[in-house]
Design goal:
Largest sheet: none
Structural class: mainly alpha
Distance between the termini: 32 Å
Order of helices and strands: HHHHHH
Number of helices: 6
Length: about 120
């Protein structure tokens, strides 16, 4: 990470190569187009009629459906469950524990700054 306002640093080729491989493997495992997945992380991937070399691929919902990256559109949890034939599934909603809430409070930037200031007094 660079300084705020500084020019962005290019990602090393080795990092891009690793992430590209992971995206490709995931796409293949899920029967998705691997080249489309690679184009989302590597600007050197070109797909005729979709993305030119030098740009990262970003898809809208409609484009993701068209190019078989997504199976369906869902705007609510209920519609996801319905599409996956899980409409009658039992849902269990999890909420944070008291310890997680305490940690969230203590790590809030304002609270942690105050605690550090008090600790220095």
């Amino acid at each position: 990470m660079g300084q705020p306002g500084a020019a962005p640093q290019p990602v090393e080729e080795k990092t891009v190569s690793y992430v590209r491989k992971e995206f490709r493997a995931t796409a293949e495992a899920r029967k998705r187009p691997p080249l489309v997945a690679e184009a989302m992380v590597d600007a050197d991937v070109e797909i005729a009629g979709l993305i030119q070399k030098g740009k990262l691929l970003t898809l809208t919902t409609e484009e993701a459906l068209k190019h078989k990256v997504a199976d369906f559109r869902a705007n609510t949890l209920d519609s996801v469950l319905e599409q996956l034939d899980l409409a009658k599934a039992e849902l269990r909603r999890a909420s944070p524990t008291w310890a997680e809430n305490l940690v969230r409070l203590l790590t809030h930037p304002i609270v942690s700054s105050l605690l550090i200031t008090l600790g220095m007094l």
